[in-house]
Protein: DNA-binding domain-containing protein, AraC-type
Organism: Thermobacillus composti
Amino acid sequence: MYEWNEMVQRMVDWLEEHLTENPVLLKMSEQLGYSPYYCSRQFNQYTGMTLRDYVWTRRISRAALELRDTDQRVLDIAVKYGFSSQEAFTRAFHKAFGMTPAAYRKTPRPIPLSIRQEVFSPYHYWIRERNRMSEVRVKPVEIKVEFIPAHKFIGIWDIGAADYMSFWNNGHSCDEVCGTLESMSNHVLPGQLAQTAGWFYRNGKKGYLYGIPVPLDYDGPVPEGMECRVIPESEYLVFHHPPFDYLKDNGAVMKAVEDTAWNYDPKAKGYAWDEETKQDYQRHFPEGYGYAVLRPVRKV
């Protein structure tokens, strides 16, 4: 039923590993065993964009990060990502981001980078494997204390959303928001994951947030449609599950962590919840970090 979700995800994975190669479509179709026409048609159907447009936007976005993070010549970056000349690269960059590569390198600002497409999810995997799946490998949830200094948080706070899916279904563009935040990844608060979600509380109601934590002294631009708020320093109880297989175990791991986090009595560690002026954080990086919910606390 979802075979093509998986096949198109394989296309995306292949493209991400070969973005600097040409001709992309022919090589990819040979690797996957389908005709170039069929690959192109199915890619468009499942991602909503042509394969050519996807490659173009991902190349220009990768190039932007290299302009920001390296000292490579603009011409070398242009050639690396398939542009025939520095002038062609400059025209494409200006079309995508409204500024020249040189101007962006001199003064990086938030720009809407194209993000990697994901069309094969843990749900699709479960549908495919539900009759063959063995017991999910969930480890005990670790509980520890972490201090996070006062910082700023740039993002969106939505009182009408309760979780990740309802947030994106409430009028926020995942591609636009995540792409813009990715362009700010060089400003992340040390020791924290780049893009972070979580929960906040307003007048007794719980809402959902998504954004990026930055140092307290950050005074750069704030993307349109986002806010920048100061978050006080605090200790947090961290409910953490170590790295796991995203496709196989994501749902079970998230449930185990959240069940523990929302039902835990902090008095067991000499704390009380302190969520009136602070916010809960949600870290989700399955293969590298794992999954965690962080709740602010104060000593009692």
Q: What stands out?
A: The first strand starts at residue 142 and ends at 148.
